[in-house]
Fold this sequence. Notes:
Layout: H1 2-5, H2 10-17, H3 20-33, H4 38-62, H5 66-73, H6 77-111, E1 118-121, E2 124-127, H7 128-143, H8 146-170, H9 175-180, H10 191-201, H11 204-217, H12 224-250, H13 260-271, H14 273-306, H15 315-334, H16 339-363, H17 367-370, H18 377-404
Antiparallel strand pairs: 1-2
Helix pairs in contact: 2-8, 2-11, 2-12, 2-14, 3-10, 3-12, 4-10, 4-11, 4-12, 4-16, 5-14, 6-7, 6-14, 6-15, 6-16, 7-14, 7-15, 8-12, 8-14, 11-14, 13-14, 14-15, 16-18
Amino acid sequence: MRKLFRIGPGALITAAFIGPGTVTVCTLAGVKFGYTLLWAMVLSIVACIVLQEMAARLGVITQKGLSEVLRSQIDNTLIRWVLITIVLAAIFIGNAAYEAGNISGGVLGLATIISSETINVAGLSLNYLSICIGFIAFILLYIGSYKILEKCLIVLVLLMTIAFIATAIVTKPDLTLIFKGFVPDFSTDKLLSIIGLIGTTVVPYNVFLHASIVSEKWKSPDDLPLVRKDTISAIVLGGLVSMAIIICGAAMQHIEVQNAADLAISLEPIFGVSAKYILSIGLFAAGITSAVTAPLAAAYVVKGCMGWKSDMKSWSFRAVWMFILGLGVLFSSLGIKPIQIIQFAQIANGLLLPIIAIFLLWVMNQKKIVKEYTNTRTQNIMGMIILFVMIFLGVRGVWKVIATL
């Protein structure tokens, strides 16, 4: 299976962006607009491949993460530390806020199968499923072995893929309407959903994560063809999963659905109990993979920004992901919704993504950094188009958050 899909470090990127947030956004896109936004997922996949390929190429050539390159290549001390502060705020605090959502998403998947998921301890109502998911993520991260982590996430990604695609097939979609869904449609009422689909696929911390983890496996520029195959196959696989979720949501049009757990419950009376269980397993896998990758990405970013040595078993590295994972478990198990922190994270990420895209494009055109492996003209043109889209998304996202304050 691994040889067929050529999945390696790219599996961590798929595991990261197919989280509960993506599942919910894709579900609602399908419920509201049927198959008509499948084309937006194609756009998201292309944008993701372009940026992640640059990040992976940078990681292989320099054997450094993006935050390490940022720290070493900007000479002006003030600008360097302003950028580092923005990066740390968006990734470190943002991932801590979203971690609760990742764990809660995994809990939603199990909650549709398990009738009772809370216990009372000292007058507090605790969700023990959140603690269980947090414990699994803790074990995988604490082992500190990239190879073990990669293999576990490959299994979970494939489980997630099979679950969502199988559920989409069970709904017996209309193939004619699916093909029509790949025709671009920029209707005003669909704009926010289009932004949401792109925003949940192209995320800042994946760029940092990918540049850092490729050096764990590949050390030579001769490996770049394998890196590209790995990146493309993993992201396309993730895109197929997102499309399958949209198709599942389309089967429930005109029915009140707020998230993937509601979708799983709604599928049962129409398509049988198996559809409910399969989709629930997919949601659980999506939650637990993101619960692992979000703390890991934050640890890599902090390590690069602070100049720590590259060691997944070092206590400084572990302290970062433990802090983020711990907050996620706490918020999720107590049912706390850190709305203000998440709103701050959305603003920070909206600002960070265009900045990172600009820096990445600049770095990938510097021969002193990446030697002869600089961007081609086509890669630069595609990168610039994606950058303009990101600026629009960033401004729109920041404005939306500010309007709700």
